[in-house]
Amino acid sequence: MIAVKKRITGFISVLLMVSMIAACSPNQEGGTSTPNSGEKGNTAEKPADTNKPVEITWWNFPTYQALDGEVGKYEKQLIEAFNQKHPEIKVNLEMITYDGGPEKLNVAIATNSAPDVIYDAPGRIIDWAKKDLLAPLDDMVTDEIKNDIAPAFWKQSVVDETIYMYPINTAPFMMAVNKTVFEKIGALDLLPLDKPDRTWTFDEYKKALEAVKEKAPDVIPSGFYAKSQAGDQGTRGYLANLGISRFLNEEGSAVAINTKEAGAALDWLVQAEKDGLVISGSASLAAADVNDLFLQGKLAFSINYSAVLRAQNAPLKQAEFEDVLLPYPTLDGSEPKLEPYLGGMAIFNNDDEAKITASKTFIDFVANDPEWGKKSLIQTGGLSVRNSITGLYDDSEYEYSELARKFVTDPPTIADGYAEVRTFWFPELQRALLGAASGEEALNTFATKANEAITKAKAATAK
């Protein structure tokens, strides 16, 4: 790791010398650069020009809902507001997509051209932190802030008790149901909407699926998918709760989902597909395929949803219906265990203290500005990670999402080797769905491979 760091530092030094000689002029378009420009701030090489702003580059997935149909428009407004208070810092915005963004980040890291700031989730951020690619953020977090955020969120934001992600927005991952379908078939009483916590049993869920199959034959009762890693949190939460188990143990040190109950739940899923209760061909479907069917009104239940996704999906609906949030059913009706979506910001350590300091100032504005902090939270469609910030929306589903936070459990992203662990999940689901293995066999094979990856990663981290 130290050797890698030295190579990175040396390469950046070369780049700085080249840029000094080239004396390229910076972008003058008011704080944003075009997505393919590849420009980064180069203020450090001209110490004589002390009035020149420090330039930082912010790469952002479509974290915020588009304004007027324009992706990135809100981000530009946010930067303009930031510059009214901090004209000494120039923020170059580059929007990236969920499809190509992860690979683009990998390439940028490999070529020592990572952005300064990123808004992302723990799955990638903590992996970068473990590879010594990020700047610590401990000096940004006061005791007041630390005590206002639940330990479960901090656990996803630190490595060896050092903070590398500044947590901002959250929402529990759960299911959604097309409530309008159940109203039309006169079966609304089959949904647990009259219970404040909306918990329900596996048998109650199956009765709801059977009602859709019988009374709404043009609607697919429920969805599933196993083509790629995207949306894997939905499949994890669904099977773990149907089998009253956890994906990983509480320490994140080993797989826990390979139980007889979870294996039986996976076997039921395979049979349910044959019985027409679950979409056919799920082994070859991606999360986006199933989500599109739900937005078209052709699917009664979506297994991968949250308040954030509900907000993002609202303008994408191709049919008029009311989507309502539900927790995953459990075998015995016990409280579900829901993985939390968590969004936050991190800083790549590009060996420039001025840029790191400027990046911290920008993150503090995004998260804590009295006006734009709240405005930005609402624009994500998520809830605040702060216990003291509630009631952002006048909406019953957001009220339920706030309540459902009590079901949040530790996510697998905290595990060493998580990036490799998740690569074994869908192949084993596919084996079961295609009849090549029983549910229990598939989960045991997954556990063996995943536990080896966790052990290997833990050993590598300890060196």
Overview of the structural elements:
- With about 475 residues, this protein is of the alpha/beta class.
- The protein has helices at about 1-20, 75-85, 100-110, 120-130, 145, 150-155, 180-185, 200-215, 230-240, 260-275, 285-295, 305-315, 355-370, 370-380, 395-405, 420, 425-435, 440-460, and strands at about 55-60, 90-95, 115-120, 160, 160-165, 165-170, 175-180, 220, 300-305, 325, 340-345, 385.
- It has two domains: about 1-170 and about 345-405, D-Maltodextrin-Binding Protein, domain 2, CATH 3.40.190.10; about 175-335 and about 415-460, Periplasmic binding protein-like II (D-Maltodextrin-Binding Protein, domain 2).
- Helix content is about 40%, strand content about 15%.
- The radius of gyration is 23 Å and the shape is globular.
- Mean pLDDT is about 90; it is low at about 1-50.
Topology:
Layout (H helix, E strand, L loop, with lengths): L1 H21 L31 E7 L12 H13 L3 E7 L5 H10 L6 E4 L1 H9 L12 H5 L3 H5 L2 E2 L2 E2 L2 E7 L1 E5 H6 L17 H14 L4 E3 L9 H11 L17 H15 L12 H9 L3 E7 L1 H7 L9 E4 L13 E8 L5 H16 L3 H9 L2 E2 L11 H9 L13 H4 L3 H9 L5 H24 L1
Parallel strand pairs: 1-2, 1-3, 8-9
Antiparallel strand pairs: 3-11, 4-5, 6-11, 6-12, 7-9, 7-10
Helix pairs in contact: 9-10, 10-18, 13-14, 17-18
Strand order of the largest sheet: 2-1-3-11-6-12
Number of domains: 2
Please name the fourth-level CATH homologous superfamily of the largest domain: Periplasmic binding protein-like II
Instruction: Examine the secondary-structure arrangement and name the CATH architecture of the largest domain.
Output: 3-Layer(aba) Sandwich
* Biggest sheet overview: 6 strands, mixed
Q: Rg, please?
A: 23 Å
Strands, count: 12
Number of contiguous helices:
18
In which range does the helix fraction lie? 40-55%
- In terms of DSSP E residues, the strand content is 5-15%
Morphology = globular
Topology as a string of helices (H) and strands (E): HEHEHEHHHEEEEHHEHHHEHEEHHEHHHH
CATH class of the largest domain: Alpha Beta
Q: Please identify the structural class as seen in this structure.
A: alpha/beta
**What is CATH's topology name of the largest domain?**
D-Maltodextrin-Binding Protein, domain 2
The end-to-end distance, rounded to whole angstroms, is: 9 Å
Catalogue the unreliable spans.
1-48
User: Roughly what is the average pLDDT, rounded to an integer?
Assistant: 88
Organism: Paenibacillus polygoni
Protein name: Extracellular solute-binding protein
Keywords: Cell membrane, Lipoprotein, Membrane, Palmitate, Signal
